[in-house]
Design brief:
It is a single chain. By secondary structure, the chain is α/β, with parallel strands linked by helices. 36% of the residues lie in helices and 15% in strands. It has 19 helices and 16 strands. The strands form 4 sheets. The chain has a 6-stranded antiparallel sheet with strand order 1-2-3-4-6-5, covered by helices on one side.
């Protein structure tokens, strides 16, 4: 049911002729002004507008943008105001009524347009966009539904309508409400809330392709994805890696122009709408050469040789799990296949800094003897748009070629942060999407992933679901036995007093992490060297008293909460995996 009724008078100026359409935050009507001229009225429900749809002064952003524009290829602003209906506040804007049809309606009848007619429409749209861009306005929603053909005069005029997603260039994109956008007309970077003049150029390129072929570029059937928008986005991005297909009637010059406008990377498209217009008019020679991105080719380290799991004190349940789920699964594939089993995709090692997550991964590589890729976020991330995704793809391609392989990623939270975080950059979001795509069932390709992090809550949740990082292992500070063994390890080859009591040292360092104990041993050694004496129990104890654990009780408590949320391999706290070293 519409908010306004037929013949209802708005603000003593406009009489409602009939209701046209209902949207998520606004309704549209055909109305008449006091001189009986037909107009188009859009009624905004303040309670349903997103905060990014307001100006700093609390006015409706769309209305303020419409007030500032006047161009023959843009819908024309007439009037606006606020009204109260049933104690609820609404805003309205009145525009010229366009007697005609949308491009979507026209294409339902004609399916495809001629090269000449398509070019004429696109030039009109670009002229309107050029005006907007000169006023620092991005339209963000150029589609077949938002371009109307004005048929009221002798000459058909194309006009851009509906400015619901328009924004001023200087406005922040981080909270941009993009869920209603048509994905087939939006540029790759806009999936990650990065909007620019170049993203409008992509939309026009997509519209041009649609007019000539009857379908938007890289079209997929939306109904297959139901409400899974993320999966749909990933599929469309994957489709865009494939070459565009054109009908035979489309000439090479037009194909080149469209390919230029639809480049995945914004910097490779036309630099401006004016440049796009010049290309269409034959005034500009088009370059499709793409600057080479700096990508990283990651080579596996030599197969690790060493003591493997025997160098780790305790953690037997974790070792047994890795042996059962990973090592034996790869060494006896046929038997596991009988039970329909392969190796899991990977596991997450999380816990306070300095508790041996990297050490465990290295010892696991020694135990298994597979190709081992040890990666930091800085090895993958790039300042170039889309280069991070390419680096991730290269890594997984290399690992597949050298399978079976282990990929160990330290500081995983920096590489794949949660996409819900407001300050995440679009490059990071794209990297998360690529990582998700590559991780899907990678265990079947002989790839096992180990991620390590001190901040599991900062990792994108999609990485942690089953089928990706299947197992979550909490590594707490070393227990008494592990601390005792570590003191022995670090001090046994140094000049210590006879009968140094390692048990007393271990008792004095509860909640100290592995790296703390290494630091304490080094500091005690420096004091003994300076005093020209052996390393004594008193020197070590004094060093311990002078240096608190690098992790506080509060932080340990926080990890306990995280552990409860994440779930853990071990349900009994007394049997938690604790990392240490054997002599």
């Amino acid at each position: 049911m519409s908010i306004l009724s037929k013949n209802q008078v708005i603000d003593n100026k406009y009489s409602v002729s009939f209701f046209l359409k209902k949207g998520s935050y606004a309704e549209t009507y055909r109305v008449q002004n006091d001189t009986k001229e037909t107009r188009f009225l859009k009624l905004f429900d303040y309670s349903k507008l997103h905060r990014t749809q307001f100006t700093e002064n609390g006015d409706v952003l769309e209305i303020e943008i419409l007030k500032q524009i006047k161009h023959s290829n843009l819908v024309k602003y007439n009037d606006s105001g606020n009204i109260i209906i049933d104690s609820q506040k609404f805003a309205y804007v009145v525009l010229d009524f366009i007697s005609g049809e949308t491009l979507a309606d026209k294409m339902k009848r004609e399916n495809k347009l001629s090269t000449y007619e398509s070019k004429d429409i696109i030039l009109s749209v670009l002229n309107g966009l050029n005006y907007l861009h000169n006023k620092q306005i991005i339209h963000n929603d150029i589609t077949n539904q938002n371009v109307m053909l004005d048929l009221s005069g002798k000459v058909v005029i194309s006009k851009i309508i509906d400015f619901g997603y328009a924004r001023f260039l200087q406005q922040s994109n981080k909270d941009f409400l993009k869920d209603g956008l048509n994905l087939f007309y939006t540029a790759n970077e806009t999936f990650n809330k990065v909007f620019s003049f170049q993203s409008d150029i992509y939309s026009v390129g997509a519209l041009y392709y649609y007019l000539l072929t009857g379908l938007p570029p890289h079209f997929v059937e939306i109904s297959k994805y139901k409400s899974d928008r993320i999966q749909l986005e990933e599929t469309i991005l994957e489709e865009r890696k494939k070459p565009l297909k054109f009908l035979d009637k489309v000439d090479e010059q037009t194909k080149t122009i469209i390919r230029k406008a639809l480049q995945p990377k914004a910097e490779n498209r036309f630099k401006s709408v004016k440049e796009f217009i010049q290309a269409l008019n034959g005034e500009l020679e088009i370059e499709l050469s793409i600057p080479e991105e700096k990508t990283v080719k990651v080579q596996p380290q030599e197969k690790k040789k060493g003591k493997g799991f025997s160098a780790i004190a305790g953690m037997q349940e974790l070792k047994d799990t890795i042996k059962l789920d990973v090592i034996d699964a790869l060494n006896d594939k046929e038997r596991y296949a009988e039970y329909g089993l392969t190796i899991p995709n990977g596991m997450l090692l999380y816990g306070p800094p300095g508790c041996g997550k990297t050490f465990f991964a290295e010892k696991m590589a020694e135990e298994i003897g597979f190709n081992f890729y040890q990666i930091k976020p800085s090895d993958i991330q790039s300042k170039f748009v889309n280069a991070s995704q390419e680096n991730i793809k290269n890594l997984f391609d290399e690992a597949r070629q050298n399978a079976p392989s282990i990929i160990f990623i330290d500081e995983l939270d920096a590489l794949v942060p949660s996409r819900d975080t407001s300050n995440i950059s679009h490059m990071n979001t794209s990297a998360v999407n690529e990582f998700l795509a590559q991780m899907n069932n990678c265990g079947e390709d002989g790839i096992f992933i180990i991620g390590a992090t001190n901040r599991p809550n900062a990792i994108d949740p999609a990485i942690l679901r089953s089928g990706r990082l299947d197992k979550h292992i909490y590594l707490p500070p070393p227990d008494f036995e592990a601390r005792k063994l570590m003191f022995e390890l670090y001090l046994k080859k140094r000049p210590t007093e006879i009968g140094l009591n390692y048990e007393e040292l271990a008792k004095s360092t509860e909640n100290y992490v592995s790296s703390d104990i290494k630091f304490l041993c080094d500091e005690a050694s420096r004091k003994a060297l300076n005093a020209n004496t052996r390393i004594t129990k008193n020197i070590v104890l004094e060093t311990i008293r002078s240096n608190k654990s690098s992790i506080s009780i509060q932080e340990l408590s926080n990890y306990s909460v995280i552990k409860t949320k994440m779930g853990n391999l071990n349900s009994n706290d007394n049997d938690r995996p604790r990392i240490g070293f054997k002599k």
